[in-house]
């Protein structure tokens, strides 16, 4: 299965503080609640009764018992084939994404805030993408620099003037969130191309209900099993010409792709065929699926491969993964592609800095979810600020993901900073910088016992005629002590995210 941190938006930055001791019975007897926002142990507001009940139940678990349940859960995940691939590790290509059995819990009020903020952000992104591929008002009005968009590597001239159904470009969106020292949710990055990891959300819940039924008993938790049907409905709603019996397929690069488990999982959850490029063909500007009964029309394609590989006639001529003629069929309005070609402009790390302005411009609203303060090193002011404060900032390359290529100033040596400074000066447009944030933590089962670890959150939004947000989303946890990077390829894991219904 894919590393859910392989999408843009996977790099955490936060300041480490000095822990203050706080003890409780049982499982938490050695737990130190640090001077961060601990989402289970030191919330700023009185917790609801259901959260207190979860905390009390956890406190009475024994460490030995929890470890035993964790071993059984790990074996269960492996037997189910829920793994991801790390191509750079020849000794352990297929790995289980570690799942911590102490859930991350969000209250109904917290989720309501996140849900409204994600919907707002998705609406603004879809407005933005329509505009830049049509009238370009936001560019001529000077809200976003034209060069930042038109010179972006993810901008696709082939999309200019193409009227996508319902003006929906981003059918599936993953918004990476962190919480600061006051518990406020902040947007770290957007993922508007092919966000991965939703299968972990659903499988983690199934695993938790099997492994920790006594912890979940009697709790009113929001369910996560609607994702597949919701996604299929959205792709039917945005099919060409409003075809209500639209044939939807999931297009995968194939069995050797790191995300193949998720492709199989989602096709099954949606109840649609899983296909590869060789299973599809284009005739007279229409897409068909090869079947034993002959060609069958295809109306909506949920693609899990990048733009460059979709159509060898238009993009990479060496691609064996795509469908020759697909872009022609798309431009004729005979097929929907989700997410649309060219959506990568909207989740670019530099464009991200302008998202608050984009929201105000199109929606005439203040952002519900704030950005992390961001400095664009391709601009003189941003570069000067970053160079002057390199030891205090998190600096990321705009084209990397998975936690690679970044530097966390407070944790870097002088030699590392100087080496990074040289690379930054050589190619400033490739970098952004952000302040180091006091990231929230959650109790996590570790080798030494239960300890605080930094977490982030990726809610998944599905858009058709309206936008629905999967309750909770993927909580990733930095399992290494002191680490701020949650990617599985960098030693991270995940938690089941429980949203209290009331």
From TrEMBL:
<feature type="domain" description="Circularly permuted ATP-grasp type 2">
    <location>
        <begin position="103"/>
        <end position="478"/>
    </location>
</feature>
<dbReference type="Pfam" id="PF14403">
    <property type="entry name" value="CP_ATPgrasp_2"/>
</dbReference>
<dbReference type="InterPro" id="IPR025841">
    <property type="entry name" value="CP_ATPgrasp_2"/>
</dbReference>
<dbReference type="InterPro" id="IPR016450">
    <property type="entry name" value="UCP005522"/>
</dbReference>
<protein>
    <recommendedName>
        <fullName>Circularly permuted ATP-grasp type 2 domain-containing protein</fullName>
    </recommendedName>
</protein>
<dbReference type="InterPro" id="IPR051680">
    <property type="entry name" value="ATP-dep_Glu-Cys_Ligase-2"/>
</dbReference>
<feature type="region of interest" description="Disordered">
    <location>
        <begin position="1"/>
        <end position="24"/>
    </location>
</feature>
